[in-house]
Automatic annotation (TrEMBL):
This is beta-galactosidase. Residues 1-28 form the signal peptide. Residues 315-373 form the Beta-galactosidase beta-sandwich domain. Residues 37-152 form the Glycoside hydrolase 35 catalytic domain. Belongs to the glycosyl hydrolase 35 family. GO terms for biological process: carbohydrate metabolic process.
């Protein structure tokens, strides 16, 4: 999900280039809008869009994913641009492999669909650091997501480009002209206050088909019926003309790309699951709805709407276009009650299921009912293709050495914030301390660690002392269980591994967020040593330092 987004619209067959993963040069074509819809080459459009993020799937999957979306009645493919992938270091760009945005957009073009490009630069999206490259953290005086000097070049560039296509701003009710404000959520047919100008159309930029999932949480299940009901409600109650399903295919958070505590699967309950397989009945039910709406889209967009009460919680939204030839009437019968209802509309009786909307493209026959599912539920079955045990597979164990203060080359006279040291090159950082009690005896010693990372492991003189887990946001001081430790009268090595399960993706003042240890004490019966301001040594975990661990058939694999 993204709290805010910026997007351009263009017919993909007309685009020329992508520059710095943030700008597009558009040639030809005409994409505008009025108070009813987006207008493409002079024609109002009802558009159904699907979010597919190119780096969350492999390039070999893109053709199939886009093809299945098109077959499912999708007109538009929406994607973010992931700045931290494309510019991992200032001036160093990467558009290869899964980062090949140009190839992805060309595939959308090849299949005759439109594209919505959400350029950010901040995207949230359950993506590490909200898509911002971590090197921004070290730009002097920078403040993210606000009126800040280091970002002003992007706003000026956007204006200077004169793209000639509409800009969209998600969840920004005061978006200035010509930017179109829009809605995110699951109930925009009920919650959206509407465009902030009568000259702007109603757009739903994130219709969540499921929800984000952190480790330890249950998968959120949203039914096909609920998605269809609220999609149609937005179209008729809010005069909506564009709906983007977030996600249509979620894919995979590869490597360290997921935000804090996010599971590897992303929106696996979308119409296309993590692997690109069709998830039923969601995919087919939405496909049927798309077809029903498009069969009367001209009347819907150009006709006059009339609302007719059919009961206490039932009503009809009727559209009639006196200028159209042939059929010029379409109706949507709504039952907001939690029980069945029988209504009469145009001298005919209709049975409406609870919380349902029926589509009558000709004001006579029901072509689609949100509560009636025709497709069977699909079951994804995993089978074992190969086992990795037995005599033919020899397993070896690798143990990373526990570093001590004398092993480190980076030392400071205080506890440092974790990401200031790692620069997001790894989720792991060793904090090391050489400690010797003073002349006062230290009996019944205990170690206490406070931290704002996700997990810590503590060792004293090479022996495991204890561990503790913080919460998913890492914003509370978690206290390590006060485990008894053994101290010698001379030097003692304290080594604490601080672990982050991904970085934050949102929230105010991200540039000031803290990770790592905050306070360390060695508690004795006679005295307490607060060693927070002692000299600490730091070592980035070997496993993230290009150490070759795995060897297969004498071939070294990093």
């Amino acid at each position: 999900m993204g709290s805010y987004c910026g997007g351009w619209w263009w017919r993909t067959g007309l685009w020329a280039a992508v520059v710095l993963a943030a700008a597009a040069v558009v040639a030809g074509g005409n994409v505008t809008y009025d108070g009813r819809s987006l207008i493409i080459d002079g024609e109002r459009k009802v558009l159904f869009s699907g979010s597919i993020h190119y780096p969350r799937s492999t390039p070999k999957m893109w053709e199939s994913l886009i093809g299945k979306a098109k077959e499912g009645g999708i007109d538009v493919i929406e994607t973010y641009v992931f700045w931290n992938l494309h510019e991992p270091k200032p001036g160093q760009y990467d558009f290869s492999g899964r980062n090949d945005l140009v190839k992805f957009i060309k595939e959308v073009q090849a299949q005759g669909l439109y594209a919505c490009l959400r350029i950010g630069p901040f995207i949230e999206s359950e993506w590490t650091y909200g898509g911002l490259p971590f090197w921004l953290h070290d730009v002097p005086d920078i403040v993210y997501r606000t009126d800040n000097e280091p970002f002003k070049w992007a706003a000026k560039m956007a204006v200077d480009l004169q793209t000639g296509v509409p800009w969209v701003m998600c969840k920004q009710p005061d978006a200035p002209d010509p930017v179109i404000n829009s809605c995110n959520g699951m109930r925009c047919g009920e919650t959206f206050a509407g465009p902030n100008s009568p000259s702007k159309p109603a757009l739903w930029t994130e219709n969540w088909t499921s929800f984000l999932q952190r480790y330890g949480e249950e998968t959120y299940l949203r039914s096909a019926q609920d998605i269809a009901f609220h999609t149609l409600l937005f179209i008729i109650a809010k005069n909506g003309s564009f709906v983007n399903y977030y996600m249509y295919h979620g894919g995979t958070n590869f490597g360290r790309s997921g935000a804090a505590y996010m599971v590897t699967q992303y929106y696996d309950q979308a119409p296309l699951d993590e692997y690109g397989l069709i998830r039923e009945p969601k995919w087919s039910h939405l496909k049927e709805m798309h077809a029903a709406v498009k069969s009367c889209s001209s009347t819907l967009l150009n006709g006059v709407q009339t609302n007719i009460s059919l009961g206490q919680l039932q009503q009809a939204y009727v559209y009639e276009d006196s200028t159209a030839e042939g059929n010029n009437c379409a109706a949507f019968l709504v039952n907001n009650a939690t029980t069945d209802a029988t209504v009469e509309f145009r001298n005919a009786k209709f049975e409406l299921q609870p919380r349902s909307i029926s589509v009558l493209p000709d004001c006579e026959k029901v072509a689609f009912d949100t509560a009636k599912v025709n497709a069977a539920i699909s079951n994804r079955i995993a089978t074992t293709s190969k086992t990795l045990n037995g005599a033919e597979h020899q397993w070896e164990e690798y143990r990373e050495a526990i570093p001590t203060f004398s092993d480190t080359t980076m030392q400071f006279n205080q506890i440092e914030e974790q990401t200031n040291i790692t620069k997001d090159s790894t989720d792991y950082l060793w904090y090391t301390l050489s400690f010797q009690p003073n002349a006062t005896s230290c009996t019944e010693p205990k170690l206490q660690v406070k931290f704002l990372s996700h997990l810590v492991y503590a060792f004293v003189n090479g022996e495991y002392a204890g561990s503790a887990r913080g919460n998913s946001t890492g914003q509370r001081n978690a206290v390590l269980v006060e485990a008894p430790i053994s101290l010698s009268e001379s030097k003692n090595d304290v080594s604490i591994l601080s672990v982050m399960v991904g970085l934050w993706d949102s929230g105010p003042f991200m540039e000031k967020r803290y990770a790592g240890l905050t306070e360390v004490e060695i508690q004795c019966k006679e005295n307490t040593y607060n060693v927070t301001s002692y000299e600490w040594g730091y070592q980035i975990s070997h496993s993230q330092n290009n150490v070759h661990i795995l060897s297969i058939k004498n071939k070294i694999v990093p």
